[in-house]
Backbone:
DNA sequence: CTTCCTGCAAAGAGTTTGCATTTGT
DNA sequence: ACAAATGCAAACTCTTTGCAGGAAG
């Protein structure tokens, strides 16, 4: 289930919303992002600026929130004080192991987690958008330096 | 594994840190919080104020971060724009199903998730602090009002 | 031609930090 | 005594919002 400009337009229009150049460009950036990469709002702003696309931060924030709520993007909490976003594709669905000290994140896959999420949302009558297992832990190198913050 | 003032003191001292009245009181609040309850920094500030304990917000933020990093508290991202905290006890370990539109959160238990987390951290040599499955979805009543934000 | 969207600037919320003072160990 | 923690206020970061002009359906 890959999003195209056309399918995005359809889905937007169904809700009384519109396809704008900005939304199309932002979707395109995420579609072409190498696997496992994720962008913060600022990152996206910078990527766009380098491509010569000057889309305002307000629009970026509004679009990221909208696309997350539509299930097009995943909103990741990587414990860095701001959110990161990536395209939401079941085939690349993964989770994160994060060091609470150095914030380093490792991605990993696990097939049973999505099943747990599907079962749970079905049971409660919710419409599933995304499910993420976030593991907070201390990485080997930070374990060796317990005294320092 | 219940924390007492004494065990907290020991663990702090091991790292060259100190047990202060503020830290003891904050731990106490979380110990006695009804199951499934969680507090934001502001909530905790208010709870303390009502008990006549005027602990500054700075100290609260510093203590919450410290106790999370020690594995005493769990840091929850309930998609409300700020973090919530609760005591980290395996026996009450649970996860969250959150509506991205109204932010309503349902708690649920699942035994296999902690196993997945333990296996993953063991494999990578990390020291497990906490693992949480967060499901983002749209609740039944928000599904019925798709047009509105 | 109406409604939605954008960009700008300003405001807002939550959190962090510098520093003088106080307090554990 | 000495290092660490507190409280205060100011600063900071990320994000949201009001509004006027511009664009999509």
Residues:
């Amino acid at each position: 289930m890959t999003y195209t400009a056309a399918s995005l337009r359809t889905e937007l229009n169904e809700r009384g919303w519109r396809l704008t150049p900005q939304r199309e460009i932002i979707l395109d950036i995420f579609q072409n992002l190498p696997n496992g990469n994720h962008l913060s709002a600022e990152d996206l702003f910078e990527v766009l600026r380098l491509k010569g696309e000057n889309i305002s931060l307000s629009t970026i924030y509004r679009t990221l929130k909208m696309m997350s709520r539509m299930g097009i993007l995943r909103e990741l909490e990587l414990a860095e004080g701001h959110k990161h976003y990536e395209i939401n594709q079941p085939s690349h669905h993964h989770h994160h192991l994060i060091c609470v000290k150095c914030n380093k994140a490792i991605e990993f896959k696990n097939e049973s987690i999505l099943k747990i999420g599907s079962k749970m949302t079905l049971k409660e009558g919710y419409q599933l958008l995304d499910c993420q297992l976030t593991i907070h832990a201390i990485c080997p190198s930070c374990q060796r330096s317990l005294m320092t913050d």
Notes: Chain A is about 40% helix and 20% strand. Residues 13, 18-21, 40-42, 57-58, 61-62, 65, 81-83 of chain A lie near DNA strand D (CB under 10 Å from a C1').
